[in-house]
User: Fold Acyl-CoA dehydrogenase from Thermoproteus tenax.
Amino acid sequence: MVFPLDSITDFSVVLTPEHEMFRKAVREFVEREIAPRAMEIEERDRPPLDIIKKIAEQGFYGIGVPEQYGGQGGDHRMAAIMSEEFCRVLPGLSVYFGTNELFMTPILLFGTEEQRRKYIPPIARGEKLGAFAVTEPCCGSDVAGIQTKAEKRGDKWVINGRKAFISSSDVADYFVVLARTYPPPDKRARYLGLTFFIVEKGTPGFRVEQCYHKMGLHGDNACELVFDNVEVPDENRVGEEGMGFIYAMETFDRTRIGVAAQAVGMAQGAFERAFQYVHQRQAFGVPVAYFQAIQFSLMDMAAKLFSARLLTYLAAKLADDGRREFTFVASLAKFYATEVAEEIISEAINLHGGVGVIVETGIERFLRDVKITQIYEGANNIQRLTAYRQLIRLLREKGQIPEEVAKLVT
Assistant:
C-alpha cells in the first residue's frame, strides 16, 4: 500500500497558516508589480532590473536561506509556493530564484564557513545574483563529460573552457564553475576528477559572450561563458577536489523541486485563464462552458493540476524533513509536473480557440515557457532514469533488494 515509502504518513503534505500568509504576500506583490508589466517584459526579453531590485527589497531572494547567512529562513515548501506564484504570471522571473539557489546550494552543503559568510549574505539580500556554470556545448545531461579544465599552479587554479546555456549569467555577480582538475581513473569512474570553483564577475580572462534568443522564459537570459586563463585562489575551490560531480547531483536533487513548482505555477495560470474564458465566451446563445465537452476538459485539467501540485509539495515536505526519499520524489515531480503542465496549457489554448494563439492574449507564452522546464536541470527522460536509480539505491540501503540485483539493474 505504501511501497516504496515506509508509512502512509509519509504521504502527508503539511502546509501551515504561515505558508498561506506567505503565499498571499507573494501573490499581492506579483499582481501589483509584475502583472501590469508582464507583456512588456515578455516582448523586450531583457532582465527587468528595476523589478529584480523590488524582488530583493521584499526579501524573496532570502527564502530558504538560513538567517545566520542573511536569509529569511523558511523551507522548501515556501520556496515552491513562491516559484508557483511568480510562474502563474511571468515564469521567466522565477529563474532568478533558481539560479541563486543553484549557486548557493553547493556552497551551503560543501563549502567552507568563510565562503558561506562571504558569498551567501549578498545573494540572500538581493545585492548580488548568482549563476551555476556547468553545461557546455558538448555536454548537457552528460555532466561527467565536460571539457572545461582547471590546472593547479602554486596556490591558484587556472581555468580554461566554455560554458553554454547559463541562465542569468549576463547579470550574475558570482558563479560556481565546474571544471575537470584531473583525468578520471577509468570509464566507470568518469564522474571523478571534477571540481567546483567560485568565480567572480570581472575576473581577468572571464567573460560573458553571446546570449541566446530562446523560445520562452523571457526576462531572463541564457548566455555563453568563456574562461581564458582565469585565475582563482585555492580558497575559491568548493569542497574536495574531484568531488564536483557528486556535489552537482546533490544540488540538482534539491533544485528540481523548484522546477516542478515552476511548471505547476504555469499550469495554474493557464487553467485560471481558460476557466474564466469559457464562462464568458458565448456560442449558440450560451457560454461555451455549458457544453459537456468543455466541462470534461476543465476537470481533466484540474485533476492533473492537483496531482502535480501535491507531488511537488510532497517532494518539498520530504526534503524539509531530511528524508532520503525526497530525491526520488523530486525527480518524479520534475518530469511529471512539467509534462502535465504542457498538457494543461495546450488544452487551455484549445479552449480559447483562435484567441489562444494570439500573442497579445498572453496564454500561448506559457506553452513556450513550460517546454524549457522539461529540458533544463535534467531532461525528463534522464529524470526517469535518475528516479529509478535513486529508488533502487534507497531500496538497497533498506535491505529490500539484494546488492547483486541492484548492481545489475543500475
